[in-house]
């Protein structure tokens, strides 16, 4: 097979289960969708193809993990999906709305109203207590929280007796759970987490992951999480594996052992051997 043929064959590797139920048509099963998304950084000799024809459906009400070697394009994919970065070509939908081509103002509003973020650094304001941090994005947007939903989130997150504590008075795991509750508070269409447990020890990390899992199972949330950690990825319903900016594999109902095993079968390029 020539390298051109190889490239073309790889191009058709997608994780779109069935275009009939794709997000572009506004169907309920898909919370976000990319279609042939390519993202290049730089020009000429310094050009890097961070994403190369990525087509992916993110299922609604499911927990999806994105894995792959360093530099494989995980963060770029998440940033493009979340409308934080533009694409070079291809199309992206959040729910029924195509975000590629949206003007800044509309994109900012869509992000604010439909997307929740959980980053590795908790990004909590030190002078606000837990509940104030949780409702801050809604306060800024001038939206009143749905009290019943907020109570449910706070109960699920297990922080009901810590709501008046400031971040410095909470453990790392509790702080990250506040960050998770903040992402959930406005009931977004989808939540993106970039290594959300990366800064936590394994016990606190497990606490946060269990909560993310419960928010999918009990609150019907949609979560996409980038992670390097097979144990963290095993909490997901599905793992999408990236290498060199392409989707090279996926796994459903993962266990940490199966993920480790699969990672062992990647060669140096991250491709399946
Ligand atoms: N702003 C940028 N300018 C130039 N190149 C970039 C930029 N952001 C990312 N890249 C390149 O794009 C490729 C994908 O990067 P990305 O951060 O998405 O990978 P990743 O899989 O998230 O990596 P890691 O696991 O190390 O965080 C890398 O080769 C990276 O060097």
From TrEMBL:
Gene3D superfamilies: P-loop containing nucleotide triphosphate hydrolases. The keyword Aminoacyl-tRNA synthetase does not apply. CDD domains: ABC_MJ0796_LolCDE_FtsE. Residues 1-16 have a biased composition (Polar residues). One of its GO terms (molecular function) is ATP binding. InterPro entries: AAA+_ATPase (IPR003593), ABC_transporter-like_ATP-bd (IPR003439), ABC_transporter-like_CS (IPR017871), ABC_transpr_LolD-like (IPR015854), MacB-like_ATP-bd (IPR017911), P-loop_NTPase (IPR027417). Residues 32-269 form the ABC transporter domain. PROSITE patterns: ABC_TRANSPORTER_1 (PS00211), ABC_TRANSPORTER_2 (PS50893). Residues 1-27 are annotated as: Disordered. It comes from the Bacteria. Keywords: ATP-binding, Nucleotide-binding, Transport. It holds the Pfam family ABC_tran. PANTHER family: ABC TRANSPORTER RELATED, IMPORT ATP-BINDING PROTEIN. This is ABC transporter ATP-binding protein. It comes from Streptomyces sodiiphilus.
């Amino acid at each position: 097979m020539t390298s051109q043929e190889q490239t073309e064959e790889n191009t058709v590797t997608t994780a779109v289960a069935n275009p009939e139920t794709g997000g572009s048509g506004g169907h309920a099963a898909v919370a976000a969708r990319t279609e042939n998304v390519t993202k290049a950084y730089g020009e000429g000799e310094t050009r890097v193809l961070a994403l190369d024809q990525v087509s992916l459906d993110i299922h609604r009400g499911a927990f999806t993990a994105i894995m792959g070697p360093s530099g494989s394009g995980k963060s770029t994919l998440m940033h493009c999906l979340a409308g934080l970065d533009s694409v070079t070509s291809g199309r992206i939908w959040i729910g029924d709305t195509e975000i590629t081509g949206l003007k800044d103002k509309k994109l900012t509003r869509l992000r604010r109203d439909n997307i929740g973020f959980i980053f590795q650094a908790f990004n909590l304001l030190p002078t606000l207590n837990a509940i104030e941090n949780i409702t801050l994005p809604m306060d800024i947007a001038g939206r009143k929280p749905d009290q019943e939903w907020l109570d449910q989130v706070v109960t699920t997150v297990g922080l009901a007796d810590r709501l008046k504590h400031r971040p410095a008075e909470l453990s790392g795991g509790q702080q990250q759970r506040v960050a998770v509750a903040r992402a959930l508070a406005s009931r977004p269409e989808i939540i993106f987490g970039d290594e959300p447990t990366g800064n936590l020890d394994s016990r606190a990390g497990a606490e946060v992951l269990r909560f993310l899992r419960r928010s999918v199972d009990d609150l019907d949330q949609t979560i996409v999480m980038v992670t390097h950690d097979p144990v963290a990825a095993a909490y997901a319903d599905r793992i999408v594996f990236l290498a060199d900016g392409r989707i090279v594999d996926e796994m459903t109902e993962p266990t940490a052992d199966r993920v480790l095993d699969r990672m062992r079968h990647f060669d140096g390029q991250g491709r399946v051997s």
